[in-house]
Design goal:
Helix content is 21%, strand content 32%. Strands 15, 16, 17, 18, 19, 20 and 21 form a 7-stranded mixed beta sheet that branches. It has a 4-stranded antiparallel beta sheet with strand order 11-3-12-13, covered by helices on one side. Strands 4-10-5-6 form a 4-stranded antiparallel beta sheet, covered by helices on one side. By secondary structure, the protein is α+β, with helices and mostly antiparallel strands. The model is unreliable at 10-20, 105-109 and 224-228 (pLDDT under 50). The two termini are 27 Å apart. The relative contact order is 0.18.
């Protein structure tokens, strides 16, 4: 066991960080195809048409575009007859809802954006997205001031764009909306309206690969388009990568993606999982930021064990946690009270709940996530 500790540590110290640690990568295909043909091509040669989960992805899409083309298909399409679903702007999967007591009597499909009503205990109502209201933004990594009430009234799409340009996004999810800092740091009664937009909206758009990401990046005119006139989405590079809906029979270039991680549904101890990944793929997975965390937690929902192993290891010799891929442990998602360092322990992600990290004994038998490159 001690020899393995030293061997892993020497590998970690001896590597240089030139590895491309992206968990998925995009490929711009400069061939004109309709949306269905593009989907078939991507599924045959890569993983699928591009799924976009956040603004970091958008920047990557823009960077791979060819200069002579202004538009490209992505993997978003409209299921017009599907049940309309409510989503959070930042792509979160929180199911928390706080509608006013009359909500069930409203026509749910008539108004597609949500706002909080501060003189109704903060309960929500659905409203036309073209209404102009104040709104609340949040900063993901700003500990000094996390939430920002913006008094300048905008429609929902403009509010979302403002928050993404100046902060992180519109306020989203239970953790944020019930955070005491919102009421403590913001005086909502100073807004020029009793209604304030939050990051909740509903639509019938789906991703080709079945991903549940609710991230959207429509152009600012989208609310004024006939939403059913074009049932497939494309990104427009000369409009900052913003999306527009288009007839699926139009022939355009397109963007595919490759998934660089795989869930192995065999139960192994941590050491066996490590060598399985290195023999059959590349390594146990490394998670370096919140975007990686979100990508992996979509995978682990399909696991058959309560936890999945990651490439996170504790060394008793030097008394610190490290990633076996060579990355320093900067981003952390430990559960409360974890890790409380101990020998013969490695890092695992829970497959349910909030997908937090836990230290688990190396001998425990779990599924695991491998990186392919």
């Amino acid at each position: 066991r001690a020899d393995m500790q030293w061997n892993l540590l020497l590998i970690w110290l001896g590597q240089c960080c030139f590895i491309d640690c992206q968990l998925y990568e995009y490929h711009y295909i400069n061939e004109a195809k309709n949306w269905t043909e593009a989907q078939q091509y991507c599924r045959e040669k890569h993983t699928d048409l591009a799924t976009v989960t956040n603004m970091t992805d958008m920047k990557r899409l823009i960077n791979i575009s060819a200069g002579d083309q202004s538009e490209a298909w992505i993997g978003l399409y409209d299921q017009t007859n599907a049940h309309r679903s409510w989503h959070w702007s930042h792509g979160s999967s929180f199911s928390f809802r706080h509608w006013n007591l009359k909500f069930n009597n409203q026509r749910i499909n008539s108004d597609k954006c949500a706002m909080t009503v501060f003189d109704d205990g903060g309960r929500w109502r659905n409203e036309n997205c073209d209404e102009r209201k104040p709104f609340i933004c949040y900063d993901e990594n700003d500990s000094s001031q996390k939430y920002h009430l913006i008094y300048d009234s905008k429609n929902w799409t403009e509010a979302q764009s403002y928050c993404r340009q100046n902060h992180t996004d519109l306020i989203s999810g239970k953790k944020q909306l019930q955070d005491g800092e919102v009421n403590k740091g913001l005086n909502l009664t100073t807004a020029n309206s009793h209604y304030i937009f939050i990051g909740l909206f509903s639509d019938t758009w789906m991703w080709s690969d079945g991903n549940s990401s609710s991230f959207r990046h429509w152009n600012l005119k989208f609310n004024n388009q006939r939403i059913n006139s074009g049932k497939c989405a494309m990104t427009v590079f000369d409009d900052g990568g913003r999306w527009k809906n288009e007839n699926c029979d139009e022939r355009k270039p397109f963007i595919c993606y490759d998934d660089n991680v795989i869930l192995v549904k065999e139960a192994m101890n941590w050491e066996d999982a490590l060598y399985y990944c290195r023999d059959h793929h590349h390594d146990l997975v490394t998670i370096t930021n919140m975007d990686d965390q979100r990508w992996i937690q979509k995978k682990v929902k399909e696991a058959s064990t309560g936890y999945v192993w990651m490439g996170l290891r504790y060394t008793c010799t030097l008394d610190f946690w490290f990633w076996v891929s060579d990355e320093v442990v900067r981003y952390k998602n430990w559960a409360k009270g974890q890790p409380m360092d101990d020998c013969d322990m490695s890092g695992a992600m829970e497959t349910g709940g909030e997908h937090k990290w836990f230290k688990r004994n190396d001998a425990d038998m779990f599924n695991f996530i491998c990186s392919k490159h």
